[in-house]
Backbone:
């Protein structure tokens, strides 16, 4: 790509980012969210740059499924003004520090602290992990059914995303596991070699929206998995993306695990008129007006709720 095209591409991203943030800040004029009654914990890790985005994400989700508990794991970038904003809009939020959720057997940074926080809260509650770059615009009955049944769910990457044995997961990932491969593909090809249970399973999902049933063993399973994979992959295990592999492994081995219907739950490039839940991953966030338009729609829904 030429320097000129790079400059033009960056200018376009900056323009769409500016348009998006101008729309997202309207969430600050919405009413505070009241505590819900549904028996689950909604947990997110939030960076300072994503406070407004997170408020759109959490309020749009709670418009359809309002949890009895909301937890934010605060990135170190979150300051006093950000905390005040979060408390003003989510008066019952439990603000926790990222450094509270560390362990010698898991990497630091990325979203590992978030996953370890989930392992804490899942001991007494169903936990839904919600990324700040998500939007809920229609009812999500599949999520409610999973919560009520105590079964796991995950965002899939295709229609009928399969639940695979570790051997099948390795075979599927091998084409992407060559030189310079993403650590996710590397990890997925190596899981079979680290002494995990023979009946263990794996689903290639996205950790941005995942449902974890109550469990007294998730913390031990998580640290054991990380120890084994770290010994196998060495420094690679500290790379961005290993938390997602671990999240996928953990939820894959929960009772009744199901991928959410695709593309009813998915990224904006595959959305249809029936899409209820969007995940605006980084490469799709500021390339056009879809994130801005969907956020404006979500904020209108939030404002339409009776006082």
Residues:
């Amino acid at each position: 790509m030429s320097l000129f095209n790079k400059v033009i591409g960056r200018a376009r991203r900056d323009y769409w980012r500016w348009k998006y943030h101008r729309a997202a800040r309207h969430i600050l004029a919405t009413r505070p969210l009241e505590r819900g009654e549904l028996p689950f914990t909604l947990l997110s890790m939030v960076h300072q740059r994503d406070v407004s985005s997170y408020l759109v994400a959490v309020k749009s989700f709670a418009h359809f499924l309002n949890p009895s508990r909301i937890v934010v794991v605060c990135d170190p970038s979150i300051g006093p003004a950000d905390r005040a904003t979060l408390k003003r809009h989510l008066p019952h939020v439990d603000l926790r520090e990222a450094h509270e959720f560390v362990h010698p057997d898991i990497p630091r940074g990325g979203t590992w602290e978030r996953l370890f926080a989930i392992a804490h809260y899942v001991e007494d509650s169903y936990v839904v992990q919600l990324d700040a770059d998500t939007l809920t615009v229609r009812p999500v009955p599949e999520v409610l059914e999973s919560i009520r049944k105590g079964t796991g769910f995950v965002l899939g990457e295709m229609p009928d995303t399969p639940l695979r044995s570790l051997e099948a997961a390795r075979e599927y990932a091998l084409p992407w596991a060559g030189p310079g491969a993403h650590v996710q593909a590397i990890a997925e090809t190596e899981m079979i070699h680290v002494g995990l249970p023979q009946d263990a399973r794996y689903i290639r999902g996205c950790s941005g929206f995942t449902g974890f049933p109550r469990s007294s063993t998730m913390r031990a399973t998580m640290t054991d998995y990380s120890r084994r994979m770290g010994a196998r992959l060495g420094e690679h295990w500290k790379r961005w993306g290993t938390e997602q592999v671990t999240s996928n492994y953990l939820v894959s081995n929960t009772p009744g695990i199901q991928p959410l219907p695709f593309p009813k739950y998915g990224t904006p490039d595959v959305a249809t008129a029936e899409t209820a839940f969007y995940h605006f991953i980084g490469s799709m966030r500021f390339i056009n007006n879809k994130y801005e338009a969907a956020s404006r729609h979500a904020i209108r829904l939030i404002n339409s709720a009776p006082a």
Remarks:
- The two ends are 52 Å apart (CA to CA).
- Residues 3-161+207-227+255-304 form a domain with the Spore Coat Polysaccharide Biosynthesis Protein SpsA; Chain A fold (CATH 3.90.550).
- The chain has one domain: 3-161+207-227+255-304.
